[in-house]
């Protein structure tokens, strides 16, 4: 799939080296089709790496997608050149008057804090409320999944005794759902978090469906019954070396961190990590794009306004 992104974004060169087809604004203007418009609220400190990761998994489809990156206005990140944000990112005020086919909200390294103590919590909840009427389907990743479950359904996160860190095995709990179409019965996915949501809290919520679960890592894939809210508690989009970089960073910082589970061959950190989740990652994102967005969203996004007025 051609992913349409801003000319000059560093991810263009990274993905081109991997033979991932990306389309700049200039080339896309020559095609007479309506691309899916996907907004990405990037809360990760590693902005450029996350951009490439998400664009990579979004590329596994024949559909054209126009990606717009969004930053918070109430918090200025310190791990990225402000010029990069000024050139390639928008704020919520710059996009809120439009409708969007899809929204992706990334994880964020703020899980040790209560949701309401996060600097941009009020801004995030405004976006979540706005998305219910202005976005057809929203995909929440890791901390954003926990934040969404808390805001929409009152399901709070729980602190774990030790970090869920590594590659964990998951089982599909509903193989009839469109999001799990084509999934293996058992598949791997990365996790990196200190908190979780309880299985029973999800099961007790009548509006939610648990689609995949891990005995070790807990609930993994959860969705509202209409598919318009999707929650992924792990990081399927991670690169092969992302957990390695996190592990080395924490070791250098003197933190008590275990070797990532089921990641390095023989748990030998001098060996190259084994990527065992790439196929699942591509299928998860392509299923979301295809079944939750493309086949459901109106061709004319202005129709979302009509639906909004009816619901009001």
Short description:
The protein is α/β, with parallel strands linked by helices. It has helices spanning 11-17, 25-28, 47-58, 82-88, 92-95, 121-134, 143-153, 199-203, 242-252, 278-294, 303-311; strands spanning 3-5, 22-24, 36-41, 65-70, 89-90, 100-105, 135-141, 158-172, 186-196, 208-214, 218-224, 229-232. The chain is built from eleven helices and twelve strands.
Overall 3D form: globular
Order of helices and strands: EHEHEHEHEHEHEHEEHEEEHHH
Percent of residues in helices: 25-40%
The stretches of 5 or more residues where confidence is low (pLDDT under 50) are: none
Rg, rounded, reads 19 Å
Percentage of residues in strands? 15-25%
Structural class: alpha/beta
User: Mean pLDDT, rounded to whole units?
Assistant: 90
Descriptive report:
- The protein contains 11 helices and 12 strands.
- By secondary structure, the protein is of the alpha/beta class.
- Helix 4 links the parallel strand 4 and strand 5 (89-90).
- Helix 1 crosses helix 3 (47-58).
- It starts with a strand and ends with a helix.
- The mean pLDDT is 90.
Write the layout of secondary structure elements.
Layout: E1 3-5, H1 11-17, E2 22-24, H2 25-28, E3 36-41, H3 47-58, E4 65-70, H4 82-88, E5 89-90, H5 92-95, E6 100-105, H6 121-134, E7 135-141, H7 143-153, E8 158-172, E9 186-196, H8 199-203, E10 208-214, E11 218-224, E12 229-232, H9 242-252, H10 278-294, H11 303-311
Parallel strand pairs: 1-2, 1-4, 3-4, 3-6, 4-5, 6-7, 7-12
Antiparallel strand pairs: 8-9, 8-10, 10-11, 11-12
Helix pairs in contact: 1-3
